[in-house]
Amino acid sequence: MGRTVIAEDLLQDRIQEILKTSGKGIITGLLVGQAHGQKREDYVVHLIRTPKIEEDTQQAGKKKKKGSATRSESLDSQWIAEHAKQVQRMLPGGLNILGIFVVLPSEENRNIQSQLIQVLYTVHKTLLKTPWQKAVKTEVDEEEQHRIVLQICSVTKKFTTKTFNVVDPRDSGTVAEWKFQSVVSQWPLLHTAVTVNINIPVLRGEATKSLHQQLDTAIGPFCECIMQGLCTFNGVLRKGDQPLLAQEPPQSKKGHGKGKGRHKESKTSHQPTSDGPEMFCVQILSKATNNKSKEVMVTECGGTVFIRGLIQARAYVHSKATVAQASQAIREDVVRSLTARCELLAEDVLEVKDFTADQEEMDITPRRVFGRLHDTHLSVCDYMFEDEGVEDCTARCQELLDITLAPDDVEIDAERLPEPEELEKPMCELMGDEEEEETDGEDVVNAQASWEKWKKSYIGTMIGAGIAVVVSGLFMYLEN
Amino acid sequence: MAAKIVHMLPVVKKQVKQHVKVDDPGLLGFLLGIPSTKTGIPTVVGLGALVGSDGTALQQEAEDTLLHLPAGIRLAGVAYTSEKPPTPDYVSTQCLRFVQAGLKDVFVTNEWIIQHIQVDPTTENEGDVQLSKLFLYDSTSGSAAPVDVREVEDSSLLSTTLLLRLQGQLSLEFEYNPGEDDDMFKAIEEGFRNLQEKIATPATIFHLTDSDVLLRQHETVDATLLPLSYHDPCHRLLQFVARSGTEELPKKGGNKDSKARSNTQDMLSMQLLFQQTGLEAMAMLPSCVPIIHSEKRNFHNVCLPVSINVTAYIHRDDPVSRVPQLMVEAVSRQLRGMEACLNMHFQGGQFCVPAAYHFLAPGMPHLLTAVYPSSLPDDTLEWYRKDLHQRFSLPTDRPLLRRQNAYVFPEDQHGDIFLTNPHEGLPPSGVKGDVTVVQGRYRYHHYMQDRMNDSGWGCAYRSLQTICSWYNLQGYTDRTAPTHREIQQALVDVGDKPVTFVGSRKWIGSIEVSTCLNQLLGVTSRIMFVSSGADLGGKSRELALHFQTQGTPIMIGGGVLAHTILGVDFSDQTGQIKFLILDPHYEGGEDLSVIQGKGWCGWKSVDFWDKTTFYNLCLPQRPEII
């Protein structure tokens, strides 16, 4: 039996619009959504048209050979794959590129059929190679991964949906059922703020490599730890096979989550005000190190990379998702956001200067800003460099995500830029120096001291900077 | 005002007695105690004797003692000998000297338990500990008052406390440039200090294994959200642990299981985790977008795995909040021990990996911990163990703290294909005499194991293997039981047998067994000869003495059969004797109920032996090593 593809109801209008603009040409694009994970079902929440290749795409797929003649009938699979790569960075946890769509006048174009499959596989392979995919790769390769090809006839308005198991290159596809249904309004939001504190020595041989390569190795162990971590949801460690959303609302902590949820929903007019989607504050617990070696490692190093700061992560899962799926989605978002920043920064720096020359280097990663996906509560995101404005973000969202956002709609204060004093290179912390304590007995005293110290430093940050909404929400939850 | 009470285990008396020197009165060591939050009555569980030379600072002695103890066992006071009678005034003047020596920092509370042992140098009476008296000394007011001592069973520790265990992986990274050793030691010190601080932050979480319970040191942050409060007695935590493994155990345990269970201590196992998110993780880090710094500089980086493996004792009624506190303390102790080990064994640019081992020595009511450098074999660490044996009053004639002696936690006991001590749980022999059996642990080796078909010829080989396993399990040797071929080769090597002997199916006897023990393990044996099986009854006292003093399994060969004798039950009054026999001729699987039920391991009367043949017994001796 084939799979069922459930498209968010709101997409009906969007598809109508796309069909209107299609004319006689071919329109290609990406399907964004979430696989059910347990049933043979996929949820599609967004269709993104492939940006026009002729346009001067400054931020998107740069080094693209512009000369390649594109006949209207042939699809540029490399271009679409490059687009997919860019889009992937801008999705929150839980949302992925599920496949491609094409709008064309005739269904009979056999040539297009084989090209579509070609595009699908190219997209899949390209995404597999992204640092994010490499970082979140789970131990066992899945035997089946289904991707969707949606074909819409611009004349008959007929939908043809097929799914392909992209792990099997010989798969000839299975017809799937496509239906519209309102689903996303109940998708819970998961959020967390991850502290990054990486301090990685760079091997002598690698010190001359590009920033991108250095960062790639620097964040690897951190990402591994995150991916192997445990998650608590609103403070509770739960069994992985449980459904995330209980039939009956959990009593105590939900109050805060909901309160905040409603606050967020208030902008979205058509949402039922009484019962918005649930919110979960997630904490990730992990081992201190993933290093399983039992031996001492002495390495010759040519430098050190420090990465320190706070990342806001968000993920959405469908309402029947298990705790394990939710945990996977939010952890993937942490890794996705960190890898995306490092990639973007490396690309940016590469254009500006020759990194390898300097003895010391300081870079501020772009900040993550969020925007709303159509009229849903789902967020998409973009990364805004220090020297950019909100209009740069809205332009990118328009071009890459095919979403029109007013500057006011962009949530830019989820993360904040560093204050000047925060730019200091982290010295090996000599925090404890003033208060040398010789404790041979129980160390409760010592611990108490460091807790006090910690609280002080925390309050410092609270005053020092306008802290993001999500973080203050967390504080409320802790006070309880 | 009612006099205060102190509980004391009988073992403390024995330990103290060992260190009393009538002609040299003075400080013996630290009394080790486990507090109880609920009753306020501490239990003295042992003595940490002073072992350093006279010049060693007391603080150093205290630290050296603490580093080998599980958390929850603290230094509770001191024991000393004196010629003076025990009066409160005398005790307070004595204690003032300890205060001056800096012991105030060593004890957690200002109430010290003081054991005053009066000795009389003019008599030959070796410091009768009966003359000792206990006081409580208040180090703030400087006054001492006598205290009621209640002796409680050694085993009460098992029933009144929980054993906590925490495992986790940390790593220590520091810079080392050859020739700059001083800088490196500083870097190591700083690295360990950072780890200590990291453990004390609220981001540190202890995850109770197989449960949803997460514990942190600061109870203001209650992350459990379970029907559990930090004020609850900590034994409630046991209810939250899903017991998946217990169903499989009874099969192996046989009828000993029900008995064994009441004797085993309840344990809570935890994993060390760190919260990467939220406020707890943010301490002292910028809360802005990630900033990347990179610098170019040539140096050597050392990455050292730090495997945290700690234990602690806690009163069952102590509050849950004390569990994470003890874990932090335990980790802190272990990190200090590892730092000391790393520094002590750094040589020529080579670093060792410190690894912690726990030991439950016979007669010892609690675990001891030692940190050993991975790079050095046990033989080179004898000097270190010697101190430890003395400090904790352990016999100095046998290995107790070698890596082989390490305690295997019940949750880690799997994968051993051989049965250990199958005689445990057998019903009494019926003689009602004095029972003396093998001391320690051995494995049951018998026909058809290790895919070796030796039915009909291999019984003495198997008996030898059982003996070798005893030496292995007791820590005398790293060497596991030799194969048939290795045994044969050993006999060829000493010139006892021709080369063709290797690979043959020839029998060996008691003499060959003793030769092999000598060749393979350096163990000497006594050979006992009886001209008839019936004469073995007359050897009962000698055999009993062997099990008392040597405690090794005995191999006996006569006619075509070899057996292992594990013990004797001998009655002085009736002269009746039974032998505890382990039969190597068993060919079945490792099923304890069959082995015990069908008598493959069991008590046999003297008719078990053949009157018409002579027997040679090989009585392996213990080497005196530690």
TrEMBL record, chain A:
Its main location: membrane. It comes from the Eukaryota. It holds the Pfam family ODR4-like. GO terms for biological process: intracellular protein localization. It is found in: Membrane. The keyword Lyase does not apply. Keywords: Membrane, Transmembrane, Transmembrane helix. The keyword Secreted does not apply. Residues 253-265 have a biased composition (Basic residues). The chain crosses the membrane at residues 458-478. One of its GO terms (cellular component) is endomembrane system. Residues 55-75, 245-277 are annotated as: Disordered. Belongs to the ODR-4 family. PANTHER family: PROTEIN ODR-4 HOMOLOG. May play a role in the trafficking of a subset of G-protein coupled receptors. This is Protein odr-4 homolog. The gene is C1orf27.
Automatic annotation (TrEMBL), chain B:
InterPro entries: Papain-like_cys_pep_sf, UFSP1/2_DUB_cat, UFSP2-like_2nd. Residues 434-618 form the UFSP1/2/DUB catalytic domain. This is Ufm1-specific protease 2. Belongs to the peptidase C78 family. One of its GO terms (molecular function) is deUFMylase activity. PANTHER family: UFM1-SPECIFIC PROTEASE 2. Residues 191-413 form the UFSP2 second domain. One of its GO terms (biological process) is proteolysis. It comes from Branchiostoma lanceolatum (Common lancelet). Coiled coil: none annotated. Keywords: Hydrolase, Protease, Thiol protease, Ubl conjugation pathway. GO terms for cellular component: endoplasmic reticulum; nucleus.
